[in-house]
Amino acid sequence: MDNWTLSQKLYYSVAIGWNFILLSTTFLFVAQYQSPAIRYRSITLTVLMAIGNSLVTTLYLGREPTYNTFPCFLNIWVSSIGMPLWLTSVAGRFMRLAFLYHFSQAKLVAGSKGTQYINVSPEKSNLSPRQYAAFTAPTMVLDENWYYRHREKFTTKYIVRLILGALALQMGLSLLVQAFTTKFQITPTMAVGNCLVGWEFIPVFLTSAFYVFILCPLFITWLRGVNDAYGIKRELMADFTLGVVAFILYVVFAALPALKEVIKIFPAAHWSVVALMISHVFSVILPTIDALRGTDAASTKSTKMSSFESMVEDPQQFEVFKRFSQRDFSVENVLFFERIQKFRLHTSDIIDEGTLPTWVILEINSICSAFIAIDSEFELNLESGTAKEIRRRIQTNDVQLNIFDRAFDEIFSLMFRYTYPRFLKMEQQNLAEARL
């Protein structure tokens, strides 16, 4: 380091320091994957964003001190991989958020329609008309919903494939450029220095402009009306805004001769560095801090169980809470809670001895099919032992009225510990806004 110039010491130190922050905070982010503050933020896509961030910032910071000797081909290839990777990962997160919200909306709608849970007529079973009418309830069929039918196209695995396809296309364009360029050649003599501009960057600029000015705005339109409880939309909008501003400033500073003296002090590419650093703060660091603090758990400690119980027992308040669960992506929990409450109400006069009435067994099987079965429409996020035990009892005909008690207690706890504090926070925000 003693042989480094002042510029090298400055830029290399910043690059190394930033990558340390990037790596450590991303590791902490992934380690908190079970936290609600992290779980719905598309962990894989966020990690891909961090990789793209590292590639671009390291390139732009690392080449400055050795501008005259820096290998030119690295400018093309790292830019062709790093920036598209970051941009497509942001676009993928837009897709995931839109899907989560609209799919939750579809669940809520499906859980509010008036059809039967039990597909059997009173004439063909020992179910009395009164008992049959008592179980008139929301349909749990989502087959007609577009988001449900195409849900495999919104999985992280599928989106990653799209990202890899976009990167493959970008790399193909870079190979084509590499075949015809002399300014950025690798062989027979590696080109170095003075290669920050040129027609060779056209594919990178065009695809970046496509993502920034066409693809992301389309996703923003898709997110119109979406308002999640985690601030993910706000975070993605910040990423998009930073990307647009950085791209415009990069082009302006690089293209205008009048700014040549300015870019000697603050190179055009550093607008992208600043934007990516701020984006990482929004996308990774702040959510990680929330997860480590246990914001929801801390809120629960100051929230009395009695107030929660009072809320779920009040039909009007519970209806507001149920609508909020759409923004919290926890609709299935509220629907399960509601259905078990109705089940208990209508089976309160049954003595749980011997064989249960047919209509009760039908309803238990229906609940299991909707909420407990693997890949069910409303599969709950239960502890594995709880779900396995219910499935085992169903398969072995060990069916009693208490079959869902453990699952109900888990869901009740999840609603109280996580959804309810965010619900109260939303109510407080709405009240504060109303006073303004």
TrEMBL record:
InterPro entries: RGS, RGS_sf, RGS_subdomain_2. Keywords: Membrane, Transmembrane, Transmembrane helix. The chain crosses the membrane at residues 12-31, 43-62, 74-95, 158-181, 201-224, 236-256, 268-289. Pfam families: RGS (PF00615). The keyword Transmembrane applies. This is Regulator of G protein signaling superfamily. Residues 307-425 form the RGS domain. It comes from the Eukaryota. PANTHER family: DOUBLE HIT, ISOFORM B, REGULATOR OF G PROTEIN SIGNALING. It comes from Basidiobolus meristosporus CBS 931.73. SMART domains: RGS. PROSITE patterns: RGS.
